[in-house]
């Protein structure tokens, strides 16, 4: 009888460890790049509305084949312009990439105290703090001037070496000619 209780306690303990892993999986975004996958742990506890919108866009395939239109070495790589950033065909407008968003509404700012450092994923926006929509950026390094000014939505937990290989832009704005792209973006897989 005592052995049965120990086995049952062990099974219950194993089940309690399995539950959080499943919850974390629902907030895992995988970005497939030409050099390999990048896994981002999304943080709905910091930015629930932003994370919800990213998940919705990813689940609809809206981020697939979208270019990294602005990449500044030593700063960040920006992507997610689903309106203008599609690679190939008529949907790719290099002169307009970075100017759009998605068909979904803009999201009010959800600023936090989480610092912008290497691997942090933040939402891009215009001058208005409440203008984030679909575009996001991945930090190459720490950048304190962004802290509390932009919404943090996640952090790269693996594949940062693949982010480092994204083709860099030129000039002060980091516009990229013949840019790399997100081949496929999935959430919870």
From TrEMBL:
Signal sequence residues: 1-23
Enzyme class: isomerase
Annotated EC: 5.2.1.8
Protein's name according to its UniProt entry: Peptidyl-prolyl cis-trans isomerase
Origin: domain of life: Bacteria
Record-annotated PPIase cyclophilin-type domain positions: 36-186
UniProt GO molecular function: isomerase activity
Catalytic activities: [protein]-peptidylproline (omega=180) = [protein]-peptidylproline (omega=0)
InterPro entries reported for this sequence: Cyclophilin-like_dom_sf, Cyclophilin-type_PPIase_CS, Cyclophilin-type_PPIase_dom, Cyclophilin_A-like
Protein family according to the UniProt entry: Belongs to the cyclophilin-type PPIase family.
PROSITE patterns, A to Z: CSA_PPIASE_1 (PS00170), CSA_PPIASE_2 (PS50072)
Keyword Nucleotide-binding: no
Annotated Pfam families: Pro_isomerase
Keyword annotations: Isomerase, Rotamase, Signal
Function field: PPIases accelerate the folding of proteins. It catalyzes the cis-trans isomerization of proline imidic peptide bonds in oligopeptides.
């Amino acid at each position: 009888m005592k052995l049965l209780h120990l086995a049952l306690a062990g099974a219950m303990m194993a089940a309690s460890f399995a539950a959080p892993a499943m919850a974390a999986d629902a907030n895992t975004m995988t970005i497939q790049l030409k050099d390999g996958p990048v896994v981002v742990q999304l943080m709905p506890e910091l930015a629930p509305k932003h994370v919800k919108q990213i998940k919705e866009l990813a689940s609809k395939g809206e981020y697939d084949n979208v270019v990294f239109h602005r990449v500044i070495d030593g700063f960040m790589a920006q992507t997610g312009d689903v309106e203008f950033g599609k690679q190939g065909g008529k949907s790719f407008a290099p002169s307009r990439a970075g100017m759009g968003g998605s068909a979904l509404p803009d999201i009010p700012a959800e600023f936090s105290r989480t610092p912008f450092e290497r691997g942090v994923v933040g939402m891009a926006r215009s001058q208005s703090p409440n203008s984030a929509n679909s575009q996001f950026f991945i930090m190459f390094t720490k950048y304190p001037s962004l802290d509390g000014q932009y919404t943090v939505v996640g952090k790269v937990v693996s594949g940062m070496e693949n982010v480092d290989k994204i083709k860099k832009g030129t000039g002060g704005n980091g516009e990229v000619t013949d840019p790399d792209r997100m081949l496929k973006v999935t959430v919870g897989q």
